[in-house]
From TrEMBL:
Pfam families: Glyco_hydro_65C (PF03633), Glyco_hydro_65m (PF03632), Glyco_hydro_65N (PF03636)
InterPro entries noted in UniProt: 6-hairpin_glycosidase_sf (IPR008928), 6hp_glycosidase-like_sf (IPR012341), Gal_mutarotase_sf_dom (IPR011013), GH65_N (IPR037018), Glyco_hydro_65_C (IPR005194), Glyco_hydro_65_M (IPR005195), Glyco_hydro_65_N (IPR005196), Malt_Pase/Glycosyl_Hdrlase (IPR017045)
Organism: Subtercola boreus
Name of the protein in question: Family 65 glycosyl hydrolase
Location of the active site: 504 (proton donor)
Residue ranges annotated for the Glycoside hydrolase family 65 central catalytic domain, each copy included: 341-703
Gene3D superfamilies in alphabetical order: 1.50.10.10, Glycoside hydrolase, family 65, N-terminal domain, Maltose phosphorylase, domain 3
GO BP, one annotated term: carbohydrate metabolic process
Amino acid sequence: MNRGFDRDRFPVDPWALREVSSSTSDVALTETLFAIGNGYLGMRGNNVEGRKAHEHGTFINGLHETFKIHHAEDAYGFAEVGQTIVNVPDSKVMRLYVDDEPFSIGDADVLEYERSLNFREGVLRRTVLWQTPSGKLVQIVTSRMVSFSDRHLAVMTMNVTVLNADAALVISSQLINRQDGHDSDADGVHPDAAARDPRRAERIADRVFRPGEYWQEGSRSVLSYRTNNSRMSIAVATDHTIETENEYDVERFVEPDISKDVYAVRARQGASVNLTKTVSYHTSRSTPTRELIDRCARTLDRTAAEGVAAQFDKQRLYLADFWERSDAEIVGRDDLQQAVRWNLFQVAQAAARADGLGIAAKGVTGSGYSGHYFWDTEIYVIPFLAYTNPMWARNALRQRQYLLPAARKRAQTLSEGGALFPWRTINGEEASAYYAAGTAQYHINADITYALAKYVRATGDLDFLASGAIDIAVETARMWATLGFWRSNGEDKFEIHGVTGPDEYTTVVNNNLFTNVMARFNLRYAAQIVAELTETRPAAAASMRERLALADGEVVEWERAAAAMFIPYSDALAVHPQDEHFLEREVWDLANTPAVQRPLMLHFHPLVIYRFQVLKQADVVLALFLQGDEFSLQEKTSDFDYYDPLTTSDSTLSNVVQSIIAAEIGDERLAMEYFIHTLFVDLSDLHGNTADGVHIASAGGVWNALVSGFGGMRDHDGLLSFDPRLPEEWPELRFRLTWQGSRILVTITATSLVARMLEGDESVTFSVRGDVHVVGPEAEVRVALSGQGPVRRANTHRAPHRREDGSVMTPSLPTGPIMLPTGLEDTR
């Protein structure tokens, strides 16, 4: 059930990830699992001594370098400038020497060890008892915190006690620009073997950071830089405080790429040395480094005035509020509970203080996917935020609003109206060099509008629309109106050709079902909110019409196109084809595909994959969830049964929706199987690339699988509803929701659903399996449940795949490399 998670090494703790024995064999994984961040600043879980690391990672959301994309064969409109997140100066290093012997966790004689990431405190701690080669016992306790209350602040401590003797003790606290290779002790082992893996970040050979002002004054050190191409600026400053009864000396050193504060302590037996390091990072797209240094100074001065203890107190209070709003509880299953909270905590670390920046695919835990923002955020993360921490959702949507000018420019380049958001980006420009599986995913427009609608429905925040966010819906609808075209064959149909859906194993197709269904939603919603804003905020609506030159005829055309949208359906097979020609392709024999050839994209040319019915991720099934009121239960069952065996789940996004729809149609076994996979995808490194950072969308998907899958929550047409599917082995599921400003606690058991108002002055109306209920302030409503919906037993004998003409398809594998007889090799 725990999918290979080592419970001897990582014991069950519902409120922390604890490691009770160290290993250097999987530092790449544990650096990610123990990463800390706040959405703006992130630090990988590198050991404090700064040695034997996979990637010495410190990242700031949105801080990136650009580079020219070199296409082997260029064409008009291809992405021209790549973007990649860069490693900012590393402040984590605090190296320890006892009698001039360096401490290194991989080489030392460690008698006791524990590392923990506490979800309520937001602090990474490590406790080690080290026996030196001369037999001295040294206790080392370190902590690391990236502040939620002050997004520019990190606090680190090191407490060292020699327990059984006196000793010469040295702590070298450093600030290092690792990005440009100026670390004399650099020993990162970031492998290049997977250089072709598109999930990995680009590597820049040239210098990234051009040094600016740098200095030391007293216990404060400052480094500053401007990036070479993107011209972004950064400043970082550190302060140190030492507390000890022992005598000590201090030496300080600074150069453009490194600063050191070295404390030489004459340590007496049992007399502790406590070093506290406070760090501030400030960045900007245009601000001079001199001003950023001043901002760093103000952050550190304020921290010193308040005291470090106050920062840890504020961290606990911040997280107490987060868990009060966001916790989801599987009662009686602490093993699953620990994994649930780890995942939800990762979303907080990626989103809490993004503050108008995007939420990257890996958050700020690693350089995977180059730090880019994808549509994953809008579909898997923002719904969780909208229902629990709506301000975080609003901030993430504001980032899309800021990027509208670039999206308009991109639409013009692709000969479309309105705006076309990029598939992957940091600065708003398309960064996907492979357009077929990237830029062609026009569905991102509808995904962003879907997230906007989710947020507005959950919060009732029409002011957000009135202040300019409505432009997102209007401009994306305009793009669909020009991308699609009318076809008359007895009746008028609106069709969309030449696009790629979420499934990247099937590209540039006509009438992708997901795209058409979501485009229909986008068009309808844009027309709806234009009318709603006109009625409720006439001044804002008038301003929008003038700002966007919106004519009434455009809105009428959106409604007409939505009503006539072509939705593929096969009467012969009683399923929705993923696209117009999907059912004509041969079927890939996934059951007999060797595990070493997964994921397929790393072992087969795209043209091989594109010829088959094989999915990287659930495409049609995702549409069944997002637009569930447009499909009957029978249609969902038939579509799920058809596409599930074709889905590789090579994408971490797939198992979420497969779990949700499996739960809805009554297949508890598959729902649980896919949920557990999602729950442990990073903790057990099930996709083999957690080393590059947490899969944030999958982490957000854990909440969706619990609340929308097993909790059966939907909000179609702005109506809150529940149709629970509690697993038989779970006694109780509890989760919190914020709806229209009121917070409710939902508790589901085998026989009842209880909704209790936790906060708010307005009653909340909801339905349970069609019956309407109202819960008022400081009250609760108990609804009896008769079972947990439809129940399907495991379907182990699937029907053979058939073509629409009734002929049977035999699943097959692509032919492997042809081995020529010796001496007959083609030498041309």
